[in-house]
Every structure is written in structure tokens, then in C-alpha cells.
Amino acid sequence: MAASSYDSVWRSTPVSDWNPNDASTGHDFLNQIDTQKGNVSNAENIYKQQAGQVADSRNTYNDLFNNRTSYNDMYNEARQTAGVDDAKAQYQKSLAAVNGVQSAMTALPSSVNANSGRALTQAQAQAAMANNMNEYNSTLQYWQNQNAGDQNMYQTALSEAQNLAGQNLSEQQYNINTALTNYQAQMDAAQKAYDQIINERNILRTIYGQMFDDEYNHRAQEIEAWATQVSAETQRFVQEQETARNNANLATQNAWNEYVKQKDAQDKADRDAANKASARANDIDAINRVYAQYKSEVSDLTKNANNFGSYLIGENSLFPSMFNGGTAASRGAALKNK
After folding, report:
1. In this structure, what DSSP letter does residue 338 have?
2. In this predicted model, what pLDDT tens digit does every residue of 37-66 receive, in sequence order?
3. Interior CA angle at 149 toward 147 and 150, to 5°?
4. Which of 45, 164, 315, 327 is deepest in the core (most CB within 10 A)?
């Protein structure tokens, strides 16, 4: 695969657009969210209303409890209502009358003599006592009956006052208990309303979670498929690069081998040329040495020719040359031919 194809895959968008309301998949997350938000709002409104009822019931209970009347105050009020004080006064009045009559009857013997103004005989005193005793007994009977009635009315008033105070206390406690029960009931209703808010919010979170999970799965699947494609294209690209690198290495090795071959050939040619040049130089050196020797010998011959004695008997004299089988002229010719 060409590098451009690999780049197109690598630079491509790994995931496509995701629609939370996709009719093809049956998803309607946004619609569910809008509906559930309405449910949450309704639950919150119900809770607010219920919280107001809780506040009202709490105020009612607090008013009743803080302003409750003590039993003593209730009993005093009931005593007024039942006329206890009037009945008590009447009872005490008749009781005082009874006590007064009884005191008078006790003092009757001495009072008869004192009230008569003269000394009475025993018979007269007894007759007077009997007559007064009958009157006192009649009076005592009246006040005793009156006192018994007054006592009954007094006790009835006390009982009525106690019953009325008890009834008022019970009614007051009943009202407080009823207010407390209503307050607790309103708090329970508020708690249920709050629990409903939590439940509706949890449902909303669940919908959001399902939506996020669906989007995540959608993108994860496409990213996985994209990664698989990228991996395959990467392997193919790496293999192609490896093949190209191997081919380049092979071409480089072949070029190097050809270079070495040509260099070896050139080096051999250079060595051959150098050897030829060296041999020629050697020949030239030899010629130069021979030529130098020739010039030296010619010079010696010239000198000897000018010196007749040396010419006759010297190293290069005429006679040695003759004796050696050559003349100076033939020897010079030999040197020229070298």
C-alpha cells in the first residue's frame, strides 16, 4: 500500500457522528430526558407545596404547645364556672349556724337562770330548759338540713370543677397530640415527596447513563474497527518499507560491488601503467647513465688526444686500446651505440 493511502487512513476521522435520537436504532434519549425533566420538576413542586404544609402544621403545634394552659389555671377557671366559691361560702355559712345553735344549746342551763332575772326553782328551770331546748332543736334541725344541702352543693361544685378542668386538660392535650400527629404526617408526606424527587432524578441519571453508554459503545466499536484498519495498513506499510529498504540495500550492495570491480580494474590499469612508466623511467635512467659514461669517456678521449703521452700509454691510450682489440674510435662508436 502506498504511503499516501496509509496517511489517508491514519488521518481519517475514526468515528462518525452519533445521534441520540436515532430512529434507525430506536433511540430517543433526548425525548426521554425532556419527559423525565418534567417529572423531576413536578416532583419538586409537590415537595415545595408539602414543605409549606409542614411549616403550617409545625407552627400550629408550636402555638398549641407553647400556649397550653396548666391544670391549676384550668381548675381555677372551672371553679368559677361551677360556682365552687359561692357554694363553699353558703356551706360555711350554714355550718356556722349549726355550730352557733349547738353552742347555745350547750350553754342553755346557765343561760336560763341568767335570762330569767330571778332565781328559778328546779322545776321552773327544767321547764324553761325544755321549752328552749325544743326551740333550739327545731332551729338546729333547720340549719343541719340546710348545711347538709349546702355541703352537697359544695361537693357537687367541686366535683364539677374537677371534671371540667380534667375535660379541658384532656381536650387541650388532644388538640396538641392531634397537631403533633398532623405535623408528623406532613413531615412523612414531605419525606415521601423528597424521596420521589430522588427517584425521578435517579431515573434521569439512568437515562443519561444509558445515552452516554450507547455513545461510548458506538464510538468504541468504530474506534476499534478504525484501529484494526490502521494496524493492518501499518503492517502493510511497514512490510512495503522493509521490502523497499531491502531492495535499496541490495541495489546499494550491487552498486558497491560494481564500484569495487571497476576500481580494482582501474587500480590494475593504473598499476600496469605505473609499472610501464617505472620500466621506461628505468630505461631512461640507464640510457642517461650510459650517455653520461659516454660523455665522460669521450671527454677523456678528447683530453688524451690533446696529450700525446697519455694517448699512447694512458688508461685510454692508443696502445691499450689496440691491445684490447679496439681503437679509440671503435670504442667511442660502441659507446654511441649503447
Report:
1. -
2. 999 999 999 999 999 999 999 999 999 999
3. 60
4. 164
